[in-house]
Amino acid sequence: MLGPVILAASRSDRMRRLVSAAPVTKPVVDRFIPGETVDEIVPIIRDLTDQGLELTMDVVGEDITTPEQAEAARDAYLELIDRLKPLYLGTRAEMSVKLSMFGQALEGGHELALKNVRPVVEAAAEIGTTVTLDAEDHTTLDSMFAIHDELRKDVPQTGCVIQAYLFRTEADARRLADSGSRVRLVKGAYKEPAEVAYQQRHEIDKAYVRILRTLMEGEGYPMIGSHDPRLISIAQELARTAGRKLDEYEFQMLYGIRGDEHLRLAAEGHRMRVYTAYGTDWYGYFMRRLAEKPANLRFFARSMVSKG
Length: 308
Known about the structure:
Layout: H1 2-9, H2 13-21, H3 25-32, H4 38-50, E1 54-59, H5 67-84, E2 93-97, H6 109-126, E3 131-133, H7 141-154, E4 159-163, H8 169-179, E5 182-186, H9 201-217, E6 221-225, H10 229-241, E7 250-254, H11 259-267, E8 272-278, H12 283-292, H13 294-307
Parallel strand pairs: 1-2, 1-8, 2-3, 3-4, 4-5, 5-6, 6-7, 7-8
Helix pairs in contact: 1-12, 5-6, 6-7, 8-9, 9-10, 12-13
């Protein structure tokens, strides 16, 4: 199983330096991260929305170690919102945020992250769009859900992410579905111990279906975060069974993966949102994309062989 090895490498400074210095890295990274600045990403936003797709934007960055870095992350999102405003895209371009970027792991991190993310959520609401709180490793989730609940008091459309491989997620899904929340369901992309998470792919897939059924039958807005053709078909069937219209749920996939499928689902009338990351601190995000799917790792390896 290479996934856990790659996830461990995502936290290694030595591997970060090695991968970042490799000449082949940038063109491969560009497959998943199409820009480093707002100026570079705005044309991508225009292009994808012109094709009938929707987006959720992620300013990449991790391992925040100072309050000043957390404030810089906040300001980067506020700059993005300022650039989205004249595009009048509304919810066709939302944002995804990791609370670790807003200082969650620092001393007093829960309060600091809430303080920093609140102006982003409020600014997004002012231009008619939304923010989704990404899930990180299991030790951060109680804080993330508490911040999500607090933000929804004033901005109820604020969404969150749940991960199918965690044992706790079925209970989390029931609570969120009952409260009418926007919820993105993913399989999970962090190395978690067997005490808290399923380790086998078939167990994760079965949990994903059980949780998705709960979301489809609930009062909220399900967001299906998966590239798996079988799970996509199951999601469509669960939506039909639950009597959901095409605008009462959506699919989400990563930029750079299964682009033809993005367009196919959009052409069928589905809401299809592309998770699009940008920024200079791309390493952790990139390594998790390699870990999630063997095909991504093979793509990187072939590129290194052909261009090295």
